[in-house]
Amino acid sequence: MAEFAVPHVRVPVQPAGAERGRGREQGDAGGAVGAVRGEHTHSEAPIRPVVQRASVRGQILDALRAALVSGELRPGEVYSAPALGERFGVSATPVREAMQQLALEGAVEVVPNRGFRVVVRDARELSELAEVRRLIEAPLILRLARVVPAERWAELRPSAEATVRAASSGCRATYAEADRAFHRAVLGLAGNEQLVRIADDVQRRAQWSLVAASGGRTELVADAAEHAALVDALVLRDLDAVRVVVEEHFARWC
Which pTM value belongs to this model? Predict the structure, then answer.
């Protein structure tokens, strides 16, 4: 199995007050360490910034999501929670909890007695996810274009501009988060929280492979530019322009 490198991740251990609890976690994880001994061993020094204990799991989850999008966690590879915990400087417990959440999101699958395998999505599955996104979002955006006031659309400019800056940085993980935030803001104007949650889940599932496999900064910038163009068309209530931008935007990933 491949080595997992996280040079940019800053996922910390618990502060001194939490060390006693951490020791118990490591004891509980002892069996798992033995089960995967020899897999993903690391000699690098752990990363140890200061953080509150309650935020460890969330920071681990964010770091793993970023690693999925950036390609550091490679499709088809198996990663053990104890080994990743060693790299992050935490016990296996928060890593395992974060990985279980990723399994619910469809990004990894459990491999008994070994760890978690990053899901490999074939071209058909990616195309199906893109189609689901288009079927959910495109009709709704066109409907909202007819009823939402121009000033409400104008409020989305900062979010659209944030995707442009993220794309310009060339960081795929940063862009993926900004992209999802923009789409949540657009769909949120429908006032249907369940729809927003479902659409966000589908987009996240597609992003693991789609953003990582994209043509790089140029394609990300082009994708982000369509967000700005969409907001412009919505503010002007130019329904024909909205339709064109929406069709091109979703066709990019189909």
Answer: 0.70
Kindly report the backbone phi and psi dihedral angles of residue 226, in degrees, each rounded to the nearest multiple of 5, phi listed first.
-70, -30
Alpha carbon 214 to chain centroid, angstroms = 15
**Nearest to residue 27, comparing CAs of 91, 98, 89, 85?**
91
What letters, b where the CB count within 10 A reaches 16 and e where it falls short, cover 228-239?
bbbbbbbbeeee
Q: Please enumerate in sequence order all residues whose Cβ is within 8 A of that of 15, keeping only pairs 6 or more positions apart, or say none.
A: 50, 51, 52, 53
Enumerate domains of the chain plus CATH numbers. Answer: 16-118 (1.10.10.10), 123-251 (1.20.120.530)
Compute mean pLDDT per 10 residues along the chain, 254 residues long, and list them.
43 40 45 41 42 71 87 90 91 93 91 92 85 94 97 97 93 89 97 95 77 66 94 96 94 69
Whole-number Å distance between alpha carbons of 167 and 179: 9
Cα distance between residue 112 and residue 98, in whole Å: 16
